[in-house]
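User: Could you write out the 3D structure of this protein bound to thymidine-5'-phosphate? I've included everything you need below.
Assistant: Certainly. Input first, then the structure.
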Amino acid sequence: MSDSGFFVSVEGLDGSGKTTQVGLLAQTLATTGRRVTVVRDPGSTALGERVRDLLLEPRAGAPVSHWAETALFLASRLQLAEEVIRPALTHGDVVVSDRYLDSTLAYQGARGISRSEILELHRLFGLTRLPDLTVILDLPVVLAQTRRESGTAPDRMEQESSSYHERVRAGYLDLAGQFPDRIVVLDADRPADEIARQCGSLVKDRLNVGRAT
Ligand code: TMP
């Protein structure tokens, strides 16, 4: 089913500045007169926030099964799509999501779960509405780790090794090659306001507003 909304996802390693850019993008888009709905994945629903806590609590006890992890990320996304994203897009909103499908492809892909399996699960679950535009904020792993370390204690995903995060980064860059019409990679090793300007123009161009007439 088509909708009149526009769906943007912002992706990147932890420490890439993603959440800051999502906030700045929402502010920029609010000036276009379109209604903007901001979400985070996992999260942004009561169920999703509880699943998020389960997924991110620092590692204790037996390792989490890779498929259990994938299923939980998908459960949170299903609830988010049904409860928030689909209604907002139907209403004509611009939806800005802090992470979405490509996080699963990159992070669970780096666990060894194939892209085709992840995409097939999305199809089976009816998660067929993909973002219209995905911005990947690309940053070398060491820089992302340094930025993150100045913040709070690492969560379970952040506790993973540098080689795991290198695979995640490589996965993101590879996805950009696989879906060139949907995904744009931006260099995140720049001042936040510069990235925000580029990101804002990119989205406004796709929305077909803010162009000189
Ligand atoms: P963040 O929302 O604070 O960026 O943290 C979410 C963490 O969960 C981050 O390390 C990426 C990870 N993640 C996955 O592994 N798979 C997914 O599908 C999603 C959405 C996030």
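Residues 6-209 form a domain with the Rossmann fold fold (CATH 3.40.50.300).
User: Perfect, thank you.
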